[in-house]
């Protein structure tokens, strides 16, 4: 589905060996407005990953758009990153749980700004999966270096990212920087 991911439980019937989708499939059907006589083609990629192509009654492939993100952001929609990894000047890791909950499993660009500074930075949110389809890594990459340079980040500085917008079209963060030793 063009890189879009849904978590759906699959059960194998011991009698006939058929696969059945269970938990999570109702949300997928509702989101894509799937109906009887739609055509869905499944390709098994691994034991953890199945690729799907969906077509309506006329044979037109369904526009997948982005999977839904939370409509309202909970109060804990933030994370802190300390600039202390070997490559902190070029990329910053995001916790997998935060990424799953708030950002989705598909990489895309986000907009990041700092309190008191009018400039906004476009930073690419990137995701990685294992060969088995397990979500392994999320981080900001392209555009991060410009953010580091403009904000004069140094080793062990902390950046708190507060998610202000997360919808099908954009992701925006407000950041607050705490300098090392302060």
Automatic annotation (TrEMBL):
State whether keyword Cell membrane applies. Answer: no
Leader sequence residues: none
Q: Which InterPro entries match?
A: DNA-bd_pseudobarrel_sf (IPR015300), Plant_B3_domain (IPR050655)
- Give any Gene Ontology cellular component: nucleus
Q: Cross-referenced SUPFAM superfamilies, in alphabetical order? A: DNA-binding pseudobarrel domain
- Record localization: Nucleus
Record GO terms (molecular function)? DNA binding
Highest taxon in the source lineage: Eukaryota
Q: Which UniProt keywords apply?
A: DNA-binding, Nucleus, Transcription, Transcription regulation
Q: What is this protein called?
A: TF-B3 domain-containing protein
Q: What organism is this sequence from?
A: Hevea brasiliensis (Para rubber tree)
